[in-house]
Amino acid sequence: MKIFDAHISPVSQQFIHQKLTPHISLSGANKLLQSVSGIVSFFETETDLQELKDTLSSTSKILKKPDRAEYGDFQTNSHLAITISKYLSMKIDEPDVVIEPTCGKGNFIVAALKTFKYLKKVYGIEIYRPYVWETKFSILDFFIENPNTNKPDIFISHYNVFDFDFNTIASEVAGQNILVIGNPPWVTNSMLGGLNSSNLPAKSNFKKHNGLDAITGKGNFDIGEYITMIMLETFQHLNGNIALLVKNSVIKNIIFDQKKNKYKIGNIEKYCIDSKKEFDVSVDAALFFSQLNASPSFKCNEFDFYKNSNPLLTFGWVDEKFVSNVRTYVHSKDIDGDCPFEWRQGLKHDCSTVMEFEKVNGHYLNALSEEVELESGLVYGILKSSDLKNTILKTSRKYTIVTQRKIGKETSYIRSAYPKTYQYLLDHKQSFDARKSSIYKGKPSFSIFGIGDYSFKPYKVVISGMYKTFHFTLVLPEKKKPLMLDDTCYMLGFDNLDYAVYTLILLNSQPAKEFLQSITFPDAKRKFTKEVLMRIDLNKLSDKLSFDELKHEIKKLNEQYFLNATTNNWNSFVEQIRPVLSRQIAMFA
Q1: What is the mean pLDDT of residues 480-492?
Q2: Is the pLDDT of residue 407 over 50?
Q3: Nearest-CA neighbor of 514 among 482, 470, 558?
Q4: DSSP string covering 542-584, please?
Q5: Mean pLDDT over all residues of the chain?
Q6: Cα–Cα distance for residue pair 225/250, rounded to 1 Å
Q7: What is d(CA 508, CA 277) in angstroms, rounded to the nearest whole number?
Q8: What is the C-alpha to C-alpha distance for residues 172 and 166, in angstroms, rounded to an integer?
Q9: Is this model's pTM higher than 0.90 or not?
Q10: pLDDT of residue 52
Q11: How far is 173 from 97, CA to CA, in rounded Å?
């Protein structure tokens, strides 16, 4: 049946029914249950005690399952919790204290009670009240069935983890060996904010992102990462270990930020799990493990959780560089430097239903199935990540209106210069005004983002930020008009075809591919970012390409794609990308 919307087993139900007599007091009930289960203050109020008594004789209730997204709720199954606890028991010293910051239904706590025989204290914190009770009932079940097992003092708190004072626990258990264990929510703050969830930290830019980064996405963080950082900051000076199930991106970010945080954690390891098998979700996740109160480590060894084997790879910091594979990076690290050209993201409008079109019978058709007549002046072909499959592209399947040539420029000129286009935009002004991103606030009507002189360069070398392939594409003009890219793409723009072709050849070379493989993470939402691409030193890459190889590659491209590229400008290109001149080539990129 269910009590407090929580499952209670027949074993616990019968025990409570027999032991909690009608006239037992709150203190008497708590004393009795602590003697049996170890749980301190099993009932927080007289109301809880009375409600339980009243409910015991009722029939089971059919209740709506909680919205898992509301809490980022992917409960760890008992088998996985036990497997992790048993693995840890062979790896670490027996803990005196177990702390679980988001204990859910209590599977990790019960697994710890079964595994670690000399525990003195257990702390569990959980925001969802039915889970608090389910945890208590599960612990009670365990001790009813195992009455002679060691019984630590157990504190299960109904609390929002972001409001809970973990420093109090740290003070109470100082000098003891601790284990922080659990499965924090796999969800971002923006997702929970969209659900109007209460399971959110206080509004803060906890990674200290500035300006544009905070506005355009870097201020969006993973709740599991936030909780992991709270645990590291609070308990790093205590003896013990931390073992949390989190998304792979969280572990990568923890190691990346370790350079500045320098948490006292060592022996950092990542154990990849099959999330589909364990949680029935398609999320790349792993067990994050590290030793507390150790000399700060800046690398992480990655393992397969299900196989007792050597590390699959090691990622982290090599000198001042963050890499995804230390072993392979060693062979390509000489390319790691500064790109002489500035990589740019494509156009952003956040209004695809009215700003993107297909061309049908000479007219433009938007996503609302409206057939629109527009002047050609502001209409440009636009490419998305899914279009970047070939080495050379010069046609587009979609079109967009480019309302500005630079960010923030006035758009009132459209009314007189392009009246049909202006009327169309005006008819859909509500869609533009409904855009949520703060980047458009205070900007002219119909503003776009990610636009500048670079957008109008005729030749662009581009790559998708979202796709996993290490392949760059050369984008040529369509009917003498430059093609645009959307904001999932990154590009270098050129006025000179030869320069663009040389850059394409260098970036598609084997040394460049090997380098990118050693610094990018295959499970990243954006495999390629501006920060990653700006690390490619074209000057050092050019040293690895012989002139004969260059001629051979140009010949292949000319024959296959009917280009007219030459080697005539190679020497001047090489001179332009030398470090001393690298900041003087804005005319080309």
Answers
A1: 97
A2: yes
A3: 470
A4: HTTS-HHHHHHHHHHHHHHH-----STTHHHHHHHTSGGGGGG
A5: 91
A6: 5
A7: 37
A8: 10
A9: no
A10: 86
A11: 7
pLDDT in the model for residue 207: 59
**Across the strands, what pairs with 366?**
357
Query: Encoding tokens for residue 351?
Result: 């209004």
Torsion of CA 259, 263, 264, 269, to 10 degrees: -70
**Which tokens is 286 given?**
């792993």
Q: β-strand 178-182 against 240-247: which pairing, if any?
A: parallel
What is the tens place of the pLDDT at every residue in 75-129? 899 999 999 999 999 999 999 999 999 999 999 999 999 999 999 999 999 999 9
State the first-to-last Cα distance of the chain, in angstroms, to the nearest integer.
68
Cα gap 543→536, rounded to integer Å: 13
Q: Average of pLDDT values for 268-291?
A: 95
- For residue 365, the model assigns a pLDDT of 97
Strands in 319-416 per DSSP E: 321-323, 344-345, 356-360, 363-366, 371-372, 379-383, 392-393, 398-401
Tokens representing residue 468 in the block: 């996993």
The one-letter amino acid code at 564 reads N
Instruction: Please answer whether residues 101 and 162 qualify as being in contact, where contact means their C-beta atoms are separated by less than 8 angstroms.
Output: no
* Whole-number Å distance between alpha carbons of 266 and 258: 11
In angstroms, rounded to a whole number, what is the distance separating the alpha carbons of residues 170 and 415? 65
Whether the predicted pLDDT of 512 surpasses 80: yes
**pLDDT tier, 51 (very low <50, low <70, confident <90, very high otherwise):** confident
Nearest to 492 by CA among 585, 389, 394: 585
- 70 or 550, which is more confident: 550
The 3-state DSSP class for residue 285 equals strand
Distance between CA atoms of 297 and 284, rounded to whole angstroms? 23
pLDDT at 508: 98
- Identify the helix (H) or strand (E) that includes residue 190: helix 189-194
**What is the maximum alpha-carbon separation in the chain?**
98
Q: Which residues contact 183 (CB under 8 A, 6 or more apart)?
A: 74, 75, 76, 102, 104, 108, 244, 245, 246
b/e sequence 71-89, b meaning 16+ C-beta within 10 Å:
bbbbbbebebbbbbbebbb
| CA distances for 162 relative to 81, 166, 231, 287, 527, angstroms | 24, 10, 11, 22, 31
Give the residue from 20, 69, 85, 73 showing the smallest Cα distance to 49. 20
Q: What are phi and psi of 36, to 5 degrees?
A: -90, -40
The model's pLDDT over 525-563, given as tens digits with 9 standing for 90+, comes to 899 999 999 999 999 999 999 999 999 999 999 999 999
pLDDT exceeds 90 at position 462: yes
Distances (CA, A) of 115 to 269, 385, 413, 462, 555: 21, 49, 72, 53, 67
94, 98, 104, 106 alpha-carbon torsion, rounded to 10°: 60
Q: Which domains, from first to last, does the chain contain?
A: 1-183 (3.40.50), 344-584 (no CATH)
What is the pLDDT at residue 57? 60
Query: Rounded mean pLDDT of 4-8?
Result: 85
- Sort 32 into a burial class: Cβ within 10 Å, 0-12 / 13-18 / 19+: middle
